[in-house]
Specification:
The structure is a homodimer. In chain A, about 40% of the residues lie in helices and about 15% in strands. Chain A has two domains: about 5-55, Orthogonal Bundle (Helicase, Ruva Protein, domain 3); about 65-195, Dna Topoisomerase Vi A Subunit, Chain: A, domain 2. In chain A, strands 4-3-5-6 form a four-stranded parallel beta sheet. A two-stranded antiparallel sheet of chain A has the order 1-2. Chain A has seven helices and six strands. The radius of gyration of chain A is 22 Å and the shape is globular. By secondary structure, chain A is of the alpha/beta class. Chain A has helices at about 5-15, 25-35, 40-55, 90-100, 125-130, 145-160, 185-195; strands spanning about 55, 65, 80-85, 105, 140, 165-170. Chains A and B meet through helix 1, helix 2, helix 3, strand 2 and helix 4 of A and helix 1, helix 2, helix 3, strand 2 and helix 4 of B.
Chain lengths: ~200, ~200
């Protein structure tokens, strides 16, 4: 129903196409946007267009960035001999937020999934193996703790074994703040298997 | 932290300035946007810029629209002798969604609030009184059921009384689906006061 006229209706519709944005939220956002000063609106629309236009994959680690090489790969203070393998750039961001990891990354852009027909050649695995020809101490596999993530982790570890490079997997267990009562059985068993000495 | 490079970080930041959009949602939206086909991205940014540029107030009812007169005021099939007074265009949209109201509207763009220093001259009240010089049967006051909305309703009804035009207020009571057990006392008393014969 077009009770706002075309322009506002179109904005609401475009916004409601975004993930997790329903009709009501789209309406609230649209009203907020048309109340903003003109320069803020321009900044927002420019950011959208420019991000779309300029974002590409880092030549080294394949994360999304806007230069040839991402800021992390370009940083000489980071440990380039430790590579953390993640499924996508958001996972990289999650580890960066911890502020404690000082190595570099390799972004696969997916995980092996026979169900979805995604094989080893559909993700950036060949590129990882190429990087391993350089001087690398350790590959930390931080794919998701899902069927696909686990499959991918197993596959990668088998590929790496012959090279003699140390290959590790991030721990699976009870999350911090997690109440044992509400944790699923598989996680509880993983946590038990992965117990460490105190 | 700039682990995404400038363009993507800027987009995330701009999106996170929107109301109700936190850092995580902004990140999700940004990744969605850069994954969209170029034409969809252009459509989104165009909608933002055009809405901001072209939206103004309807000459008649002061709702937000993109033409001289909004689609509702321009519609001759609607009953122009019944005017519903609302605080803003979103309230108008809420009643339009019911699909049952066939009159026109008057958007005040606010409510009288001595606390916030908003007086009768700060909202579109004078314009309402001007409209009442034409042939009007009824003014339905649908300001919010808040202190400000009630104050505004009282004020308007006093202004209208001398004109002899019928002036009504939408009912206050228990919302449909509302469980009496969880309804506040004021609403329960309002519902009692407003009881109708069966």
């Amino acid at each position: 129903m077009n009770y706002y006229g075309n322009e506002l209706s179109r904005l609401i519709e475009e916004l409601s196409l975004l993930p997790g944005i329903g009709q009501k939220t789209a309406q609230r956002l649209a009203f907020h946007i048309i109340d903003l000063p003109e320069e803020n609106v321009t900044r927002l629309s420019d950011a959208i267009v420019r991000a779309k236009k300029n974002i590409r994959w880092c030549r080294e680690c394949f994360t999304l960035t806007d230069s040839e090489v991402c800021p992390i790969c370009a940083d000489s203070r980071r440990d380039h001999k430790t590579i953390m393998v993640v499924e996508d750039s958001r996972d990289l961001a999650a580890y960066e937020r911890t502020g404690k990891y000082n190595g570099v990354y390799h972004v696969l852009h997916g995980a092996i999934s026979p169900m979805l027909g995604i094989g080893p050649n559909d993700i950036r695995l060949k590129e990882l193996m190429t990087r391993l020809r350089q001087d690398v101490d350790e590959v930390i596999i931080a794919t998701n703790n899902s069927l696909e993530g686990e499959t991918t982790a197993m596959y990668i570890s088998k590929l790496i074994k012959p090279t003699g490079i140390k290959c590790t997997r991030i721990a699976s267990g009870v999350p911090v703040g997690g109440d044992l009562e509400y944790i699923d059985e598989v996680t509880l068993l993983r946590a038990l298997d992965g117990r460490t000495e105190l």
